[in-house]
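Postdoc handover notes: sequence design on the structure in folder B. Input tokens:
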């Protein structure tokens, strides 16, 4: 298999030479825009913005030796996204799905690997703990987010544990100018059910730009929905409020202090008898969250900007009161406390010449402390874990207009691992000419033997609950990832195009798997996280962007992949072992279109495609466990928006649209109190018609 992938690297190199018909003297400076043809290209396709996740430094996206995908506020509006989970599917290799039809726990998959393989950051800080990951993708609203950056492939060399499949960096909004906006979107789905989302944002900046503050608030109320009329919800009830701010103060013209804070209160409930206490229901999954988080950062720059230093600290505290129970169990209440603390410092030095060309050296240290206490007395379960790691990283990136080479490594000491972990990486970029750029990379990653998000979610299956424990002899999991890509840009008259073709290959050693175990203490289902031999995930991502100035913008992505264990894995005694990873389709993709036929009128269309996959189905509603091969789905959306200039300062946008236009939804959902709540696949919401209005000053 490795031989095939090396052959793929060689094939990509040969393809790039076919495009390379321009002499070296004709190569344009990458990152500088041709004023007659290229300016609208980069602006319209949003390819030349500044990104930070690929190297922990600000760099032009086109000059980055690492491919960094960006989800912008324009896409948030195009797709009608309310939360992070709504928008992540519009990147190649990324897919979001619900894993429980009682509580609606969302999961992100990158390049075919489940959520525990991804590192989610907030403003570059890893405070997204295991508990936060259970529902966090739905808890963070797009109203507080400036953009989301995505790096596919191993990222442990920069960000430590769990960054095997990739890194998602949620970058919150900062104050740029004085502005206020208020918006409301009301969606109607199912049988008159509503989903109401209200957002209030305000930005204030002093005349000398020395001080600024950005305030945000969001309220979301969504009704529960019973798709098959069995009296049990298939879309959970949700109530959430988010408040927060981001502020800065320029101490001098070369130093800056930044402070941010967010508070999230959320209630979610699924099952039946939703108007009664959860212990009076046949099935109830209820979680009440109180989340408080924030950070403080100090930046210092030299006069020539060659020396850059920052020191930071971030923290997030989560209190969760929960009920995961069946058969009117009065004792199924639980509570969870989680505190995550991060502190670190980074120094960057830009050198005119280091050995053979200009270079940026980056070095830093980071301490991460996560203290988790999860108790469910009725099930005699008490998960208490303190996960601490201290790491240091170095990176040197040589770069010119045509070529860049980044070499780096990180050394982590994790308290749950006996030995320190060394994670190297190497990235290279070569601009063959003004149109074609070649990139290749190698990176390693690891996962410590700790509690993960799915361990903190208790599913209802067959009138019982499913509990996950961790093997006391669980070994760390390691990975080696290889990526190679061609990035092709071309201007055809007034049409700008960009095509990215990226191959990926990840080899996992001592891969984590769940195995059913016997437990005579109760009648519930028990699984244990243990090690299997290994796994290989490989495939190709395609990313196409087309723009006709700012009038028509189109983006489409598609992934072909293969996710296999090295040895057949048995997840149930009733089903033959399989090598194929579950919930990992071999092909999936998306499309997003923005058309502006006139100045103030915009038409947007979106679509997400998910191919067939294997999904486990536990006995309860059915007689015995089975593997289900799901049908494929295409979730289409349409949005119309018109802007009115009500006064010199006041603008109003009126919009309307439909999500999941063809009402693509799972047809074989289990029914009744003995259903398998984790037997769910396909779009997260049924067809939803929505109307919105936004006022902005």
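Designed sequence:
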């Amino acid at each position: 298999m490795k031989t095939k992938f090396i052959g793929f690297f060689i094939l990509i190199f040969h393809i790039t030479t076919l495009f390379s018909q321009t002499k070296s003297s004709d190569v344009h400076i990458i990152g500088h825009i041709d004023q007659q043809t290229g300016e609208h290209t980069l602006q319209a396709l949003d390819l030349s913005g500044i990104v930070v996740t690929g190297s922990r430094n600000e760099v032009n996206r086109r000059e980055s030796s690492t491919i960094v995908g960006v989800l912008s506020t324009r896409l948030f509006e195009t797709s009608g996204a309310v939360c992070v989970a709504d928008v992540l599917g519009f990147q190649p290799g990324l897919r979001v799905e619900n894993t429980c039809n009682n509580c609606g726990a969302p999961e992100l998959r990158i390049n075919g690997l489940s959520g525990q393989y991804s590192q989610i950051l907030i403003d570059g800080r890893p405070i997204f703990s295991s508990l936060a990951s259970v529902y966090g993708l739905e808890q963070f609203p797009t109203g507080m987010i400036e953009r989301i950056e995505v790096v596919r492939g191993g990222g442990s060399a920069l960000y430590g544990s769990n960054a095997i499949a990739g890194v998602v960096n949620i970058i919150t909004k900062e104050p740029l100018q004085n502005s206020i906006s208020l918006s409301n979107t009301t969606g109607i789905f199912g049988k008159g059910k509503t989903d109401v989302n209200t957002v209030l944002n305000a930005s204030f900046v002093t005349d000398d730009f020395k001080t600024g503050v950005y305030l945000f608030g969001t309220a979301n109320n969504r009704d529960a929905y019973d798709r098959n009329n069995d009296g049990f919800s298939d879309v959970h009830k949700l109530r959430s409020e988010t408040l927060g701010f981001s502020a800065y103060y320029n101490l001098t013209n070369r130093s800056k202090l930044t402070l941010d804070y967010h508070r999230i209160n959320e209630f979610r409930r699924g099952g039946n008898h939703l108007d009664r206490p959860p212990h009076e229901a046949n099935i109830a999954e209820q979680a009440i969250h109180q989340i408080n988080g924030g950070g403080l950062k100090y930046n210092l720059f030299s006069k020539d900007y060659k020396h850059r230093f920052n020191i930071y600290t971030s923290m997030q505290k989560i209190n969760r009161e929960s009920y995961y129970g069946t058969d009117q169990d009065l004792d199924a209440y639980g509570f969870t406390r989680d505190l995550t603390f991060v502190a670190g410092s980074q120094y960057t030095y830009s050198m005119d010449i280091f050995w053979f060309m200009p270079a940026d050296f980056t070095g830093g240290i980071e301490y991460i402390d996560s203290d988790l206490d999860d108790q469910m007395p009725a099930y005699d379960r008490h998960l208490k874990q303190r996960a601490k790691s201290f790491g240091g990283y170095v990176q040197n990136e040589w770069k010119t207009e045509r070529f860049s080479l980044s070499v780096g490594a990180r050394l982590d000491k994790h308290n749950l691992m006996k030995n320190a972990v060394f994670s190297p990486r190497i990235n290279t970029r070569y601009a063959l000419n003004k149109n074609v750029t070649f990139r290749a990379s190698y990176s390693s990653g690891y996962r410590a033997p700790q509690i993960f998000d799915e361990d903190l979610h208790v599913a209802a299956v067959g009138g019982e609950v499913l509990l996950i424990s961790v093997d006391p002899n669980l070994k760390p999991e390691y990975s080696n990832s290889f990526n190679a890509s061609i990035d092709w840009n071309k201007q055809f008259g007034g049409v700008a195009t960009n095509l990215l073709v990226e191959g990926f290959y990840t080899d996992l050693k001592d891969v984590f798997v769940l195995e059913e175990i016997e437990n005579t203490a109760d009648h519930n289902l028990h699984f244990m996280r243990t090690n299997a031999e290994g796994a290989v995930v490989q495939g190709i991502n395609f990313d196409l962007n087309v723009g006709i100035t700012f009038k028509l913008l189109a983006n489409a992505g598609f992934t072909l992949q293969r996710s296999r264990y090295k040895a057949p894995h048995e997840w149930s005694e009733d089903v033959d072992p399989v090598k194929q990873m579950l919930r990992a389709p071999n092909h999936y993709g998306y499309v997003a279109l923005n058309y502006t036929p006139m100045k103030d009128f915009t038409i947007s269309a979106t679509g997400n495609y998910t191919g067939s996959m294997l999904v486990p189905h536990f006995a309860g509603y059915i007689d015995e466990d089975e593997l289900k091969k799901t049908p494929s789905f295409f979730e289409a959306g349409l949005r119309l928006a018109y802007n009115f200039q009500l006064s010199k300062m006041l603008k109003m946008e009126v919009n309307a649209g439909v999500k999941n236009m063809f009402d693509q939804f799972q047809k074989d959902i289990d029914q009744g109190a003995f259903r398998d709540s984790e037997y769910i696949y396909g779009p997260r919401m049924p067809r939803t018609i929505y109307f919105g209005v936004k006022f902005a000053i």
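Context for whoever picks this up: The longest strand covers residues 333-354. Don't rerun without checking with the PI first.
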